[in-house]
Amino acid sequence: MFDKASKKNIIFLAAVLTVILFLFSDKAPSGGSESLNHDFGVAEKSSPPVLSNIFEPLKIEAKSVYVLDLKNKREIFSKNAEVQLPLASLTKLMTAFLAADYLSSDASVVISENAIIQDGDNDFFAGQTWPISDLVDFMLVSSSNDAAFAIAEKVGNLSGGNQKIITNEETEKIFVRLMNQKAREFNLTQTFFLNSTGLDMSKRSAGAFGSAKDIAFLMERIIEKNPDFLSATRYEFLEFLSRENKIYTAKNTNKGLANIFQIIGGKTGFTDISGGNLAVVVDIGINHPAAIVVLGSSEEGRFADTENLVRATYKWFEFYK
Fold first, then answer.
1. Interhelix angle for 168-185 vs 91-102, to 10°?
2. Is the same domain home to 16 and 106?
3. Is the domain of 16 the same as that of 83?
4. Does 53 map to a domain?
5. Per-residue pLDDT tens for 29-56?
6. Does residue 49 lie in a domain region?
7. At 286, which CATH number?
8. Catalytic residue among 142, 143, 211, 297, which?
9. Does residue 40 sit in the same domain as residue 66?
10. Which of 273, 269, 297 is nearest to 59 (CA)?
11. Alpha-carbon gap, residue 101 to 103, rounded angstroms
12. 267 annotated as belonging to a binding site for a ligand
């Protein structure tokens, strides 16, 4: 038989042993999506999904992808992003940028014979006059090669200074030189232009080259210059009026427009050599733009690729903003 003191000691030791066993047990209490911090008794929220789990499961047809948080200057997702590929009509983003750089907002452009013989028929006629702002918007929405060439001629003529311009082809060459100068200024290391439209030079030679990463940073420059610069590309159709009061309807070449939430603007590109390209900027938060660029997809696949990437980018922002 134990005396009372012994009983008290046994009870005390049993209590201490119970506490020790509890503290060193590896079984955490059950509790839904929260767990108990054993050191401090603080509830911890579930960790966000690993970044790779958001983007890697996506079925992306494009050869190259880059997603960039423009507000915080951080890479969100990358796939072969620095590989140099044909740009096709993404070239027109630089054409538009230089138009804004060199021409006043009230400038006018006269359409030349050389402009209207470019690939694609916009029903322009030689001698026709357009306000530069309308011509740039028409080019970006409908991907008009006529408009791009006319803009290049206008800027090339002005930039030619006192030298005698003999042909419209020379003004195009001057403009292309300005495009490449701007690419170097922006440190777009994989970008090189051969013309103002992005049209293939031949069956084997593209009209411009660049990387998905370069184009994302070009989009950043465009948005920084003017947040509304690409606003026309948010619409499926737009009407324009030339100085001769001729009405033109521009149909957006971005067939996936309706499926891209909170789009700020974008540009399509496609040739036989390049395949399908698409670059968009979306607002993933309140005034929080992100650029998404796909290169080397198929003509239709670029739209599905971009839609999937946009959705994943919104999901990313929910956890990593």
1. 100
2. no
3. no
4. no
5. 333 333 333 333 333 444 555 666 899 8
6. no
7. 3.40.710.10
8. 143
9. no
10. 297
11. 6
12. yes
The single-letter code of the amino acid at 120 is G
Q: Is 33 inside a domain boundary?
A: yes
114 and 225: one domain? yes
- The answer to whether 251 is a known catalytic residue is no
Say how many domains are in the chain: 2
Q: For 190-274, where are the E strands, in sequence order?
A: 192-193, 208-210, 237-241, 247-251, 263-271
| Phi, then psi, of 277 in degrees rounded to 5 | -120, 150
Q: What is the mean pLDDT of residues 161-171?
A: 63
For the cut 60, the answer to whether the pLDDT of residue 276 exceeds it is yes
Whether 131 is in a domain gets the answer yes
Q: Are residues 116 and 239 both part of a single domain? A: yes
Spatial CA neighbour of 89 closest among 229, 275, 259, 231: 275
At CA 10, angle to CA 9 and CA 12, rounded to 5? Answer: 65
Q: Residues 199, 119: one domain?
A: yes
Instruction: Give the start-end residues of each E strand in the chain.
Output: 35-36, 43-44, 64-69, 74-79, 85-86, 108-110, 129-131, 192-193, 208-210, 237-241, 247-251, 263-271, 275-283, 289-297
Q: What is the pLDDT of residues 291-306, one digit of tens each?
A: 999 999 999 999 999 9
**Is residue 176 within 8 Å of residue 196, measured between CB atoms?**
yes
- 78 catalytic, yes or no? no
Query: Quick one: pLDDT at residue 107?
Result: 97
CA distances from 66 to 187, 278, 288, 305 (A): 16, 11, 17, 12
Between CA 272 and CA 286 the distance in angstroms is: 38
Q: What is the residue range of 11's domain?
A: 4-44
Q: What is the pLDDT of residues 179-192, one digit of tens each?
A: 999 999 999 999 99
Residues 281 and 232 in one domain: yes
Residue 211 in tokens: 């990387």
Catalytic residue among 64, 89, 196, 242: 89
Average pLDDT, the chain: 86
Give residue 230's identity as a one-letter amino acid code. L
For the question of residue 92 being annotated catalytic, the response is yes
